Amino acid sequence: MEHDITLSLEDAQSLSQRILRKTGFSEGHVEAITRSMVAAQRDECHSHGLYRLLGIVETARMGGLDPQAVPEVIDQAPGIVKVDAHYGSSLLAFEQGLAPLQEKAERNGIAVLMINHCFHFSALWSEVEALSARGLAGLAMNPTHAFVAPAGGVRALLGTNPFAFSWPRPGGTPYTFDFATSVVARGEIELHRRAGNAIPDDWALDDQGQPTTEATAALAGAMLPFGGHKGSALSTMIELLAGPLIGDALSHETQAANEDGTGQPCHGELVMALSPRAFLGEQSEAGLLHAEKLFEEILGQGARLPSKRRFEARARSLTSGVSIPAALYRDLKALVDDNTPRPHA
Amino acid sequence: MEHDITLSLEDAQSLSQRILRKTGFSEGHVEAITRSMVAAQRDECHSHGLYRLLGIVETARMGGLDPQAVPEVIDQAPGIVKVDAHYGSSLLAFEQGLAPLQEKAERNGIAVLMINHCFHFSALWSEVEALSARGLAGLAMNPTHAFVAPAGGVRALLGTNPFAFSWPRPGGTPYTFDFATSVVARGEIELHRRAGNAIPDDWALDDQGQPTTEATAALAGAMLPFGGHKGSALSTMIELLAGPLIGDALSHETQAANEDGTGQPCHGELVMALSPRAFLGEQSEAGLLHAEKLFEEILGQGARLPSKRRFEARARSLTSGVSIPAALYRDLKALVDDNTPRPHA
């Protein structure tokens, strides 16, 4: 068995930048994508870290994702920033919408950033944490692909539709959660399939709409929403707010849009920001201190706050760097040395 | 066994009005509370229908709820309507905040109604449906009492914190859900206790923080959130947004605030409205039609939309009136004939 490769955060950043430049991404996309991938690797979210660069490069080379796309920021309404990503990555679109979103949220109390026509392959927590770092409460959601059957249904229709929230905590890491509205992540079923293990019978349906404990049958069928009809309802809300409300695709349309059926992750995203200063005026600091009572009570009874493991990983990585499997490191290095022509250069 | 009593909607309305007037409620409160109670009874939500008047009268007589309170509407920010209920019912406060909320949502795209210091004893679906009836998407949430342990915890801390959403559908009943973030409603455990039945072991903990199948032990202990750590996180978000963010109480504070410990439901509420017209401009009708595709797909695979049973009950009640148990009817009539002095008259 090979050892993992340890990289400093600077080396991880440099590796990501070189891969993305080689693939033909504009410098704005190189920086935005690298920030997100390195942040995920730093927090030991391996599936959204450097590993994800393999898929991004493949998507760009297949020609769906435009690595040179210039996001267009539109002042849609006093409380809405619209960014048309023009089929580039969501990440640069988010970064360009962040300042006007903050400005609108602080003036109005609440504001929305709608991102259209973006390729989405990153975790949402880094975006809602960009808001809580600015003293705002943030929510984010997006459709994905039709992997999940609605409660009581038999076929995949809803996405795994992530829902993320972050709340600013004075002097500490924020209160942040970011969860898929499916029972488990799709990758979890994939891991069971590789290991030849059965899955619990409440994770998924087979292609006949029957509950299954076979991972292979589950992947060919439909995952189930978390929490039964309640999670199904929440996921449906995400489809509506981050789909039709912003003039963008539903999860079951994202796959159909792709000719070869591999289902590239192209859809919209909705981000909300709420300003404690606007809600509470001079009492906003008192409001944030009041919220601390809730966290103290949660921790005081031995429960943990979401993202605890991620924040612990972050502290470790900031001093010791990040570790990735040697095989992944080789695959990533190969992308730097690759001589495939750039699709959009 | 006694037969149920059937009342026309007009008679149900008149009965509610007479009870509330007799208890000393101002005419504004009489109308707002009656509208909500009769709407719930019409939709056969028995626990939030005429039955609920018994608790409202008791709460008013105990002196916590001010039946003459005049809600104060404050223009808190361009995107925030604040209504201080001044310890009256949430329902009149909501009705008075509705028009400015709609106006702000249509101008800005998104707006919030924050209600403070209200007594809350109604279902949220009637409020989010007031928004969808005006062509807006609506969300509503509030803390309740500390009945639910956080995931991984051992003691009641979070409320049953309802979360409601409604989406306008062209020419039909809206897409609406309204669920408690506990596994089941507290009344469900109470029903099991009365029937002497065991409860499933994932509903609640006993007062030692251990899973229990005994309803009595569960009522003395803590309920569990739906969907494990995901539902727990969602419930925590509701505590923060409808508590400290709006300068109002957390669930574990609402009970402590009441001297006799019976825990009157006095806290805040947060309502959000989003305007498809502001998000989509001339494409807003197309956006609503696009959403219909999702509902068609859900129904096409044999799943049902939330609130289906309620809308069917509504159609029945509009032609046939509502039925309530004879004993409840006698209890309600007794409130009309009661000669207890009015607390605030």
Automatic annotation (TrEMBL), chains A, B:
Sorted alphabetically, the keyword list is: Oxidoreductase
List the Pfam families: Ldh_2
A Gene Ontology molecular function term for this protein is: oxidoreductase activity
Q: Does the keyword Lipid metabolism apply?
A: no
| Source organism, top-level taxon | Bacteria
InterPro entries per the record? Answer: Mal/L-sulf/L-lact_DH-like_ah, Mal/L-sulf/L-lact_DH-like_NADP, Mal/L-sulfo/L-lacto_DH-like_sf, Malate/L-lactate_DH-like
The first-level EC class reads oxidoreductase
Enzyme Commission (EC) number? 1.5.1.49
Similarity comment: Belongs to the LDH2/MDH2 oxidoreductase family.
Q: What is this protein called?
A: Delta(1)-pyrroline-2-carboxylate reductase
